[in-house]
């Protein structure tokens, strides 16, 4: 018989996917260019030309076994060395190749990181608003995802709520900065306070508490905002990275887990990842993608379009009287809805061909997400629809 | 704290990897070209030139989002349609796109197939000799892998032992033909008998019993041997395929699960795979690899070298008096060792720079595996070493 729990999961529909499906359907009626689809976080800017060139050259010229053959389970040694050298130079943390485990994207990285530190009965704490897939990612391990309510003022960390929820069963703290869906970047002060608090709790409980930091948006930062490098603040950090956003390469399925070099048993953790792989069918990411991202180094896609879109939206939302934390990065913005139930708010927006996602699934009801990884021209055209929506549906709104 | 079970797995060393490591070390002393390394099943023939061309063209010319963007979780729709059409035409089973789930290789395919049909407490039966990774693949699900002792005469199925082990807790039968490590191909008669027996047991137990067929060696067949297409014999079949061997593309991490179109809830199974993916960090295989394998259709690498190597080895092994089933495919041969303990036999062979793998790990003690996916020239040179090894260590052996 089929295993019922996976069949049952199909009934719990994803709001994001429902919104995207609605946008696609509506697009068939009025032309997709006329649907202001802010539902999906798919990078819209192309990969850098140099990445295409590097990859094509490898495909055509490299020895077949080197580029199409098996990668070792932990990743191709030269790739791991290159990435470690890059991180040493860039962040000043003494990574070596042995601290890097190559994965198929951030999802693959998180699947290994969670299994390294959390088992049945453990808790993993994360902070709202949070990426809604964390639940299904953690569920099969038998650990429990606990969500700390949001700091809705600044989308930093609600320390009061956090400290109230902290307990001995917490194996790891899962953070995501720059954050999906809020676009916020945790400040140096936030990270320092988190690190100090966790070190104190580690002593108190007599066991490690790991930070798992999910950083696919690391390279998408706006207006000189600085992103504190977590492993420089806290030794027991498992950094999960993906090239999906920085190189517009989500279909390449390439990322890594980097374990803090000063973490106890650091190298053992990486070898454990190789064992975890056997049980989840991961094995290793594509050899070609490993070689290609190592070759292009710090290169990224042209992110300027995301910042331009963000500024257009932020200015208009503010002018329309929305309460909204200005994003420090990512390609998301997360304003407060104009009525208590963001689901109703987003439902009404559909009439104006505005496809928004309510914050409930991100653990933050009353807010909504706009993923502005779309053409700037479309963002510009959407502003009129946004204004009409607010003026018509919320006539008492205090427009600025 | 780290999760101890994965740390403990590191102590259970893989004999294959130990042998390969020994070969690499010995290669540093005498030159790797002088080590007759039959340890690893890594394809040695290059990918077809056409695959390189197709891939390079996609990398350079396709729209960035189409070739580097996210694939839907179930796979790229056009790819699924193309593969289904190909299977309809080739095998006469009415697959449609909705019956195909794209995966990162056979390991990814098996990870999904097992989770579709087996849960904690269930049994999965397989037949010795079997691929030694099946144990770690199944272990995290909580199901139990039960190994039916080998039919050491012909490496077909030992039905007497199988029927004795069959019981109501068996959720699936896992088969691998052409077989690693024996190289044997299950005959039409074997498959027909298996299918008939399982249908009878399904009625008796009142629940489905699935066949999970692991077929990475499907395209490597010798001397006109015919491979029965399992889903044509048995509806409740989950076929797990990988392009690792047929296109020499193990580093591409690309394969699929195909569910029998006549299986009850066939489409539901495929949708369940999408849910399973979320919990194991799979998501989807690389978009580029999906598109490339669909484009090249039935193309394979040049497999002639494997058959040539097999014949060289088979003739010499037979002449040296080994008991040996002639392989019908793969790039493995699995002769009987010349003493009871194959581990001791393989240890002695090292002195002659012959790297062989004892059959114990494959559930078949007393035999040994040779993976002859190496240059023919090296196979030819190894025959002298093989003869010296036998003449010196087993002087009473009845040479032909």
> Which structural class do the helices and strands of chain A define?
alpha/beta
**CA-to-CA gap between the ends of chain A?**
61 Å
Number of helices of chain A: 14
What is the ordering of alpha helices and beta strands of chain A? Answer: HHEHHHEHEHEHEHEEEHHHEHEEEH
Largest chain interface and its two residue counts?
A: A-B, 74 and 74 residues
Which range best describes the helical content of chain A: under 10%, 10-25%, 25-40%, 40-55%, 55-70% or over 70%? 40-55%
Major β-sheet annotation of chain A = 7 strands, mixed
Give the strand line-up of the largest sheet of chain A: 2-8-7-6-5-3-4
Rg from Cα of chain A: 21 Å
Note the overall shape of chain A.
globular
Low-confidence runs of at least 5 consecutive residues of chain A: none
In terms of DSSP E residues, the strand content of chain A is: 5-15%
Structural overview:
Chain A is α/β, with parallel strands linked by helices and 400 residues long. Helices cover 41% and strands 12% of the residues of chain A. Chain A is built from 14 helices and 12 strands. Chain A has helices at residues 4-9, 15-30, 49-61, 64-68, 77-91, 105-117, 134-138, 159-165, 188-205, 266-280, 287-296, 304-319, 342-349, 376-393; strands at 36-37, 100-103, 123-127, 144-148, 170-175, 210-214, 237-242, 255-259, 332-333, 354-355, 357-358, 368-371. In chain A, the strands form 3 sheets. In chain A, strands 2-8-7-6-5-3-4 form a 7-stranded mixed β-sheet, sandwiched between helices. Chain A has a 3-stranded antiparallel β-sheet with strand order 9-12-11. A two-stranded parallel ribbon of chain A has the order 1-10. In chain A, helix 6 (105-117) crosses helix 10 (266-280) and helix 12 packs parallel to helix 14. Chain A starts with a helix and ends in a 7-residue tail after the last helix. Chains A and B meet through helix 1, helix 3, helix 4, helix 6 and helix 10 of A and helix 1, helix 3, helix 4, helix 6 and helix 11 of B.
